[in-house]
Design a protein that fits this description.
By secondary structure, the chain is an alpha+beta fold. It is 17% helix and 28% strand. A six-stranded antiparallel β-sheet has the order 6-5-4-3-7-8, covered by helices on one side. Strands 1-2 form a two-stranded antiparallel ribbon. Strand 5 and strand 6 form a beta hairpin.
Length: 169
């Protein structure tokens, strides 16, 4: 699998290899969204849980999934607006949301089987999607401030702790 990552610069006029890089906050008026998925340790499909938080300019969503095929157990959505989304994206950019560590073996599957696995995704309709990951075992391609980024995502969900209180990751 080949993955191209466009690094979002702090200057909208930055270019890299002939491609104009946008500041992450420039996507606040588009249909782009950012997602954090927290997956629990490797265990049986019936007890495996994961949590996904997705944020775009219209909504802030949280879903809890069962198993490896992503059966939704529950979800909730909250209204968002472009100004709030722009502020969120700017904070994500400042904390290195799109910074990638270059690893000799960036193998994701099976890494840190007894710990937590985190996916950081940027999904747009202009071909600049990215997927980075980290784990509670310090492995992964995410080079940004993982703890702060995870906290920023959780802070987007009203009563996050209440909503996830019965989830065993």
């Amino acid at each position: 699998m080949f993955l191209t990552i466009i690094i979002f610069r702090h200057s909208p006029s930055s270019t890299q290899k002939g491609t104009t890089s946008k500041v992450l906050a420039d996507y606040s008026d588009s249909d782009a969204r950012v997602e954090l998925t927290i997956a629990g340790r490797l265990q049986g499909d019936d007890v495996r849980r994961s949590i996904t938080i997705a944020v775009d300019r219209y909504a802030r969503m949280i879903s809890i999934f069962q198993g490896y095929q992503g059966n939704i157990l529950k979800s909730e959505s909250f209204v968002n607006n472009q100004d709030a989304y722009r502020a969120f994206l700017a904070a994500m950019s400042n904390e290195g949301f799109s910074l990638k560590r270059n690893l000799k073996n960036p193998k994701e599957d099976g890494t840190c089987p007894l710990g937590l696995h985190y996916n950081y995704d940027f999904i747009s309709n202009d071909g600049h999607d990215s997927h980075l990951w980290s784990s509670s075992c310090s492995a992964g391609t995410m080079a940004g401030q993982r703890g702060i980024i995870q906290t920023l995502f959780r802070s987007q969900i009203t009563d996050y702790d209440r909503f996830t209180s019965d989830v065993q990751l």
